[in-house]
What does this fold into?
Amino acid sequence: MAQKRHLLADISLKGLAIAPSQVCGAIRIVPLLRSQVRGDLRLFKRSYQEDLTVVDVGNASYLSYVPHGLVMSWSDDGDPLVAYGGQFQKRDGKVLHGTCGSVKLMHRMAKREQGNQLRFLPLHLAMEGFLSLFFKGPSIAWQEYSRYAKSHGLGSRWEWSVSGRGIAGLEDAIRVFEIHEGQVGVLLFVADALASAFVVPTPEDYRVLHRSLLEDFYGESIFQYACIYDTVAPMSCSIDDRSVETLADLRRGVLQMRSDWAQFQGFMAEGLLGRRLKSQMVYATNSFFLQRFVTDLNPHAENYIGEAIVRENGELEYLKTYCLSASQTKRVYLLSQLAEHNWNFGGDGGGVEQYAG
It folds into this structure.
């Protein structure tokens, strides 16, 4: 019951401040700042070098290229953790070498390690949940189903995505953008479409993981936006010089301008912020809750999958999201409608809604 109470119902930037954005071509990066850093939760990157990773997720296997994992470390008493361990490469899973490359074999998307440590695979944790969503098939052997489907299930699902290095302009933007003091995350826009939201617990963690945005994967629509557009919509915010007579007036004007910027950039991310979520608990400690989610499926709006670590008081300690393409949304929307009606393909249409995409 306690775990269910801590499931995310929506994404809130509680405890985070939105700073003015930086722009490079079609890439807009909005820094997220944390004023109160507790330090009792840390994330360390563990790099992998294999060409393919196969993860045993119970009754199925997940196959993908996985460039790195994240190791979550926490303290039970709330004391800050010492910044250690980020440079060590722990053996994780088994590696098979062949003529076509190397394959890493791993157990579980999120696996408890010794002490207060949990290894998980960022974004792949969310994608594996998305691939299995509504894909269990019916509990009734409808006559329309083949003998194979009745015996072996619905088979496998697959999706394709693009590495951050394939997003035009992203590598240059990551290289030249300034990292603010107190910055723990970003809202990443491509042609002013929200490509990703990324948050970590501490500024030190973010500095180490800043370039990992290049190793993340992005949807088809984000890739296309980066190819089509080479700039973003012009935005300006200024101070009325007629209202400035003293340094105090100027200070108030700057604060108001920053507030206006923050509100507008939050509005740009409204497709994610405040949306109703379907969440699933992955791992829980006494104070932190790792979960994955998908936004309410609206075929006519942007939809997201992602994962988050939430503190017991509701503050967001970790967040990583992926923007679904229109075709991905359509597929999972139709699967949800089929699952809702127990995959009934009866002569009356089975009650399944038609999707006009």
